[in-house]
Amino acid sequence: MANMNPNTSKMVETKKMESDLKKQAVLSVLKELMLLSDPVNSPISKAEICRKAGVSKTFLYSYREELIKPIDEAIKKQNQKLKVITKKQTFSESSKDKLIESLKRRVTELDKENKELKRDNAILIGKLANK
């Protein structure tokens, strides 16, 4: 015999608290990356924030105003810093080599992330097709 009026208020309250904790984790990771202020070695990206905070991108996009907006602003500021660094500083050969290495690492990481996302999409499409 099923309860026709289940009391789910505690469950809803607990899930809301979990979401709030995850939001705080995302914002603290963002603040940490902004404090590092190293666009070459510690780039700010949604994928990196998700990885460090232990949340999914879906979670981020569920809170556009609270999470996506500040992340996008931080990424924009970082990109401006990167442009200033590359325009104003003259690099020695060794620093150019290090920059190239870090950018190659970044490209490799992004390629890996892209492959993972494509694989996840294929799995989800397969699950949708089976329903």
Stretches where pLDDT is under 50 for at least 5 consecutive residues are none
Q: State the domain count.
A: 2
Give the helix/strand class. Answer: mainly alpha
Coarse morphology = flat
- Which percent range fits the helix content? over 70%
The helix/strand series, from N terminus to C terminus, equals HHHHH
Described by strand count, sense and barrel closure, the largest sheet is: none
Cα-atom Rg, whole angstroms? 20 Å
Determine the N-to-C terminus distance.
Answer: 29 Å
Average pLDDT: 86
Say what oligomer this is. single chain
- Provide a count of the helices: 5
What percentage of amino acids are in beta strands?
Answer: under 5%
The number of E-state strands comes to 0
Care to describe what's here?
With 131 residues, this protein is mainly alpha-helical. The chain folds into 2 domains: 14-89; 90-131. Helices cover 80% and strands 0% of the residues. The chain is built from 5 helices and no strands. It has helices at 9-36, 46-53, 57-62, 64-88, 93-130. Helix 1 crosses helix 2 (46-53) and helix 1 (9-36) runs parallel beside helix 4 (64-88). The two termini are 29 Å apart.
